Amino acid sequence: MSIFSTDALNPGVRKREVFGWAMFDFANSGYTTVVLTAVFAAYFVGAVAGGAEWAAFAWTAALSLSHLIVMLTIPAMGAWADRHAAKKRLLMFTTVGCVLATAALATVGPGAVVLGMALIVVSNVFFAWGESLVAAFLPELAKPSAMGRVSGWGWSLGYCGGMLALGLSLAYVLWAQAQGQKAAEFVPVTMLITASVFALASLFTLALLRERATPQAVFVGSAWRQSYGQLRSTFQQARRYQDFMWLLACATAYQGGVAVAITLAAIYAEQVIGFVQQETMVLIFVLNIAAMVGAFAFGYWQDRLGHKLALGITLVGWIATCIIAAITTTKGGFWYAAAIAGVCMGSSQSSGRAMAGMLAPPAQLAEFFGLWTFATRVASIIGPLSYGAITWMTGGNQRLAIGSTAVLFVVGLVLLIPVNMKRGREAALQQVGASSP
């Protein structure tokens, strides 16, 4: 039997379309891998900001501002996309925006702190918008019983894209360093490489993915005001979707910890453990391999074990990762933590997205995935800012900060307990019956 079996897909969905959907994960993973994790983060702190005491805070502040913008805009964008059957059109818009902003990061040199922060804000906003929109296609493509598997296909292929962008960047960095170039000369080129991979790979998505939704009733007045009105109505109906809301609370906690791993891993590795830039890039490359395996394997296991149990297992793994990273004093010890983090990163992201797809009402997929993105953006503010605050208040003790991050995963584990997948799925499907004429 084929690994990518059509048995997992809804009627009328072809493999090529799922491939096109998964290729967006392939396309945009280079942004998180190269820009937010392995290269630009450490470059911004060390070279652009000159290693100033406030540099790490400036980095997390820029990211937090971008997440705040996404929080305020994505739910309404999702509702608007549902009403106008415009997920694919908006996905094209956000893709172009992120690609151009990423390429523009090549113009950021030493001292250009404001420009660097502004472009990080813009690029990350476009990235988050696109991530939410493409996730909303998942329930249209996969059967409920196979949603975890199909989500895992996307995440695992996504890490391949991250490794491609990082691998090309690493090859260029090694060549440039052999020529005697400094970071200010070779890092901008890695931004162009990342933008190019994103642009080329996303063409498969835009060519193969179909918009299956149909426009809903058109109302007179401001579309954005109507969208926010629908969002407000969704929150008012929260008790009807209590399991989805519990999952949002869970995601708000554990995604905060994931955000710390994504945005501060390179900084921690270099400033605390003593990695140099090439070692950091190799570390992140291997982490992506572990994440790819985790996303793919857990995509199958979670459909058998159950989405809730699969996510719970990964949260336990994240807690172990934080503890090991906090107490290890060697590069070898940190490699162990990174390997566990890689497996947990891919599997927790895949599990969470699949659970959201199971619990979201079919007629409001983009809107509910907008709520999902809203929750993850809240988490992306809480996690890195709490890390930065602890580091600042303890005189630069990043070990204590990474150890404290384990608390976020513990809270996520506790908030996962009330989620009842069967009850939540029934509530989502009842919404279909209630809205039928």
Helix content: over 70%
- What is the domain tally? 1
The outline comes out as globular
Look at the structure and give the mean pLDDT.
84
Characterize the main sheet.
Answer: none
How many strands appear in the DSSP assignment?
0
N/C terminus separation: 41 Å
CATH class: Mainly Alpha
Number of helical segments?
Answer: 17
Second-tier CATH architecture: Up-down Bundle
Q: What is the rounded Rg? A: 21 Å
Walkthrough of the structure:
It is built from 17 helices and no strands. By secondary structure, the protein is mainly α. The chain has one domain: Growth Hormone, Chain: A (Up-down Bundle), CATH 1.20.1250. It starts with 14 loop residues before the first helix and ends with a helix.
What's the short story on this structure?
With 437 residues, the protein is mainly α. It has helices at residues 15-38, 40-48, 55-84, 87-104, 113-135, 138-141, 147-178, 183-208, 223-236, 242-273, 277-305, 307-327, 331-359, 365-393, 398-404, 406-416, 421-435.
What's the layout of helices and strands?
Elements: H1 15-38, H2 40-48, H3 55-84, H4 87-104, H5 113-135, H6 138-141, H7 147-178, H8 183-208, H9 223-236, H10 242-273, H11 277-305, H12 307-327, H13 331-359, H14 365-393, H15 398-404, H16 406-416, H17 421-435
Could you list some keywords that capture this structure?
437 residues, mainly alpha, 81% helix, disordered C terminus
